[in-house]
Specification:
The chain has 7 helices and no strands. The chain has 168 residues and is an all-alpha fold. The protein has one domain. Helix 2 crosses helix 4, helix 3 runs antiparallel to helix 7 and helix 6 runs antiparallel to helix 7. It is elongated.
């Protein structure tokens, strides 16, 4: 695994990002903007699932409107995140908050898949409910908790990242 991380760390893109003092902050800013859009759009759906906002709007319409924004922003966040990771792969791979963020992202993905394919597969039937079924509310609360935790961990990565020497 260490050899793979050294390979990632040594690629020309990662090297350029490390050596250019403006490139990392610009990529990070784009990453943060994309994450903000991801979490903002997901939070709107989660708050509806929980029963705290847009109670008179059909849940299927809310998800239909926000899903494209979420996915576009997620793709941008993933690409910029991979680029940022490559710039310092060895250090990130050993950072508690980075590892936690990746674990939480995995759990958020599992929660989303569970909701998509099990709990909310017939979302249209809930369109006229103000209070959605308990499994939907739980999925929304879990999602919101996971994404807030992802933000927390992501924010702390930069404060706790220590350099790790690339020795091959």
């Amino acid at each position: 695994m260490n050899d793979f991380l050294i390979f990632i760390y040594g690629n020309p893109i990662a090297q350029t990002i490390r050596e250019n003092e403006l490139l990392f902050p610009w990529i990070e800013a784009l990453h943060v903007l994309a994450i903000t859009s991801v979490i903002g759009s997901i939070a709107l759906v989660d708050l509806r699932l929980i029963g705290l906002r847009a109670l008179n709007r059909p849940i299927s319409i809310i998800t239909q409107e926000l899903l494209p924004v979420t996915w576009i922003a997620f793709v941008i966040a993933a690409i910029t995140g991979i680029i940022l990771f490559a710039s310092n792969a060895l250090s990130y791979s050993q950072n508690f908050y980075f590892i936690s963020k990746m674990g939480l992202l995995t759990l958020a993905g599992i929660n989303m898949l569970t909701f998509q394919f099990l709990i909310g597969r017939n979302l249209e039937r809930w369109n006229h409910y103000q209070q959605l079924p308990i499994p939907a509310r739980i999925a929304g609360a879990v999602s919101l908790t996971l994404w807030i935790s992802i933000i927390f961990c992501g924010r702390w990565i930069g404060f706790t990242l220590e350099p790790v020497l690339a020795i091959s």
